[in-house]
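As promised in the previous annual report, we have extended the structural survey to additional targets. Below is the entry for Phosphoribosylglycinamide formyltransferase.
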Amino acid sequence: MEHPLLFDGPDAALERLRALCLAFPEAVEVLAWGRPTFRAGKKIFVTVGASMDRPHSMVFKPDPEERRALVQDARFFIPPYFGPAGWLAIDFDTPRADWVELAELVETSYRQVALKRQLAQLDRWRAPGAPEGSK
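The corresponding structure token record, generated without further manual editing, is:
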């Protein structure tokens, strides 16, 4: 069964999220289930679109300790399929969207699935004194 595309044209909010996700070491975008997924190697760290009704939602894997607090915040919801494994989702194309917070959630999700070498590379980039954008 072929899934319908969630996005079939340019979308500014998706482009902004894409830029966040692809900034991580070895991050790639793969179309799956008709929607963009972002992966650290083969493991998904962000899926766009929790459902066809919420295309501008970001499904991510939170830190288990932070998850308890996030589910108390009405902006977050448990997405279908991914939810039972501890994943959460948040809408990213709203006037209240906090892109600094979204970037932190993306990084946390990446860190949950990335390989040790990818994490080491990320930490080198984040180290004080490291040149900006020193991929």
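The beta strands are 27-32, 35-40, 43-48, 57-60, 76-77, 88-91. The chain has one domain: 24-123. These points will be discussed at the next consortium meeting with the crystallography subgroup.
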